[in-house]
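Query structure, 179 tokens:
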């Protein structure tokens, strides 16, 4: 898997140097629509019928999430992050917030950072994804996206806002001195 990702990353530097064709945009849009539908398939079932909340249903959803993850990496590597700028539609934040395991963090962090730096990925999406990964791995959040509400004071406030500024995010509410 690491070899495939490395090869795809190398290809992405060439592929993203030019604008996407109409056909390439449509490939991404069609795949993204499918991913967003399957992302919620069994989650919606559990919400509608709580009695269905069991391991079998979650195993089905996990399989769909796994397929989405592989497809998302593949298409992002080839065509760039699916954004308004790239394909005329923003990817669902909900979709990428399901890619937040430690393995996902390792597989996506350089790809997503590259897409952020190119202006393809929204800074807000990157920060939400990054901090959700940190939280899920039991590590300290980095950009102050969690917990909600986002009000901080003291060193945390200053540190988070310095990091947020580097990726183009608005500062958090709060104060540099705690009362």
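Result returned for the query:
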């Amino acid at each position: 898997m690491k070899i495939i990702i490395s090869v795809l990353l190398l290809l992405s530097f060439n592929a993203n140097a030019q604008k996407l064709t109409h056909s390439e945009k449509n490939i991404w849009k069609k795949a993204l629509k499918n991913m967003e539908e399957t992302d919620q398939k069994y989650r919606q079932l559990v919400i509608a019928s709580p009695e269905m909340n069991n391991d079998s249903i979650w195993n089905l959803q996990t399989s769909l999430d796994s397929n989405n993850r592989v497809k998302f990496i593949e298409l992002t590597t080839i065509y760039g992050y699916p954004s308004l700028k790239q394909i005329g539609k923003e990817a669902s934040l909900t979709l990428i917030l399901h890619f937040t395991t430690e393995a996902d963090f390792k597989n996506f962090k350089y790809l997503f950072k590259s897409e952020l730096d190119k202006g393809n990925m929204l800074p807000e999406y990157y920060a939400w994804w990054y901090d959700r990964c940190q939280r899920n791995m039991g590590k300290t959040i980095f950009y102050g996206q969690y917990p909600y509400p986002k009000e901080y004071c003291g060193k945390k406030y200053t540190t988070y806002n310095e990091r947020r500024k580097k990726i183009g995010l608005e500062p958090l509410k709060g104060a540099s001195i705690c009362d």
